[in-house]
């Protein structure tokens, strides 16, 4: 499939009406890294660090993490890599960490909640990231932030770790960005001040959608029931775009929907400028964006919403049928 899109691999993603969209990739294992070159991704928008913890049978040492993160940055060769801190709990259980049985793990002790309660693990990972950067730019993001203070506490840990590293005589990153994943509807309704504080926001669409529609993303009986292009969900996206716009906060989207061409087209039309997806999706998404006029798509979305339709998908499909 990648061969089919080879001719547009180096083409910047600019829509017919001149809007520039950044297509970046999701990764998590060393084996994913060669895709940075072959897919045409402009960077790594989501590096899921937990995968390297999940494939082992004991807690990795800090020095091992440093070596791994260094390799990731080396192979990115100056392209931006967004390291997501450990996103464990829910469906991702570390075999070597004490497991607490929870009635609703998806709503339970997971991601940043674990990090804030187990500061030792969070610090070790932050330290490893800072050391791996070794004077290069570093981008870190915290998963599953549900309210502003969780981000603030995590950021406080980042600053503390930075100070400690400096005292120990380590080279600090050239620049450091600290972002939050917006994966629970609550964060879209945080005070505007939060959007001023955060360096960037990345929408974790898989979780956001699961919690918005109250439909388990792992449950075959319900997981396909609700459309991402449902106007209610698009209203939430619109709100997030607006809030980030007011604070001039960079916004990206990194759930599976970013890699589905029609969904990606609508997200771009709604104002999301960076889409992070599995490498094999870059070609198909780029191909559609290059042929599209976001102005038109925006109009179709607005009209369908105005008519009171449940989803904008039928209208978009019709438009795409009529316009090649
Ligand atoms: C998401 O929730 O959309 C996301 C990107 O994170 P994960 O799929 O790893 O939960
Ligand atoms: Mg998630």
TrEMBL record:
It comes from the Bacteria. It is found in: Cytoplasm. Belongs to the PEP-utilizing enzyme family. This is phosphoenolpyruvate--protein phosphotransferase. The gene is ptsI. The chain holds residues 424 to 747 of 747 of the full protein.
């Amino acid at each position: 499939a990648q061969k089919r899109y080879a001719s547009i691999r180096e083409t910047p993603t600019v829509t017919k009406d001149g809007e520039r969209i950044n297509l970046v990739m999701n990764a998590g294992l060393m084996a994913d890294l060669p895709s940075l070159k072959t897919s045409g991704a402009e960077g790594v928008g989501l590096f899921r660090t937990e995968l390297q913890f999940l494939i082992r049978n004991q807690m990795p040492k800090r020095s091992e993490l440093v070596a791994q993160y260094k390799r990731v940055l080396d192979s990115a060769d100056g392209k931006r890599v967004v390291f997501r801190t450990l996103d464990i709990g829910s469906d991702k259980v570390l075999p070597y960490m004490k497991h607490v049985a929870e009635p609703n793990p998806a709503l339970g002790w997971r991601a940043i909640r674990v990090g804030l309660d187990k500061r030792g693990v969070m610090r070790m990972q932050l330290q490893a990231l800072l050391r791996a950067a070794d004077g290069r730019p570093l981008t870190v993001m915290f998963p599953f932030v549900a309210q502003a203070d969780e981000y603030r506490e995590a950021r406080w840990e980042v600053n503390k770790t930075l100070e400690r590293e400096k005292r120990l005589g380590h080279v600090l990153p050239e620049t450091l960005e600290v972002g939050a994943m917006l994966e629970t509807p609550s964060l879209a309704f945080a005070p505007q001040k939060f959007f001023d504080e955060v360096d960037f926001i990345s929408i974790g669409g898989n979780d956001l959608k699961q919690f918005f529609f109250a439909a388990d993303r792992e449950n075959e009986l319900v997981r396909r029931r609700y459309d991402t292009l449902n106007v209610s969900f698009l209203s939430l996206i619109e709100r997030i775009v607006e809030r980030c716009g007011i604070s001039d906060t960079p916004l990206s989207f990194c759930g599976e929907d970013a890699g589905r061409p029609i969904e990606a087209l609508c997200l771009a039309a709604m104002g999301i400028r960076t889409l992070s997806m599995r490498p094999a999706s870059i070609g198909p998404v780029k191909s559609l964006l290059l042929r599209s006029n976001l102005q038109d798509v925006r109009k179709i979305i607005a009209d369908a919403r105005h008519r009171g339709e449940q989803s904008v998908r039928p209208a978009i499909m019709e438009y795409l049928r009529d316009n090649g």
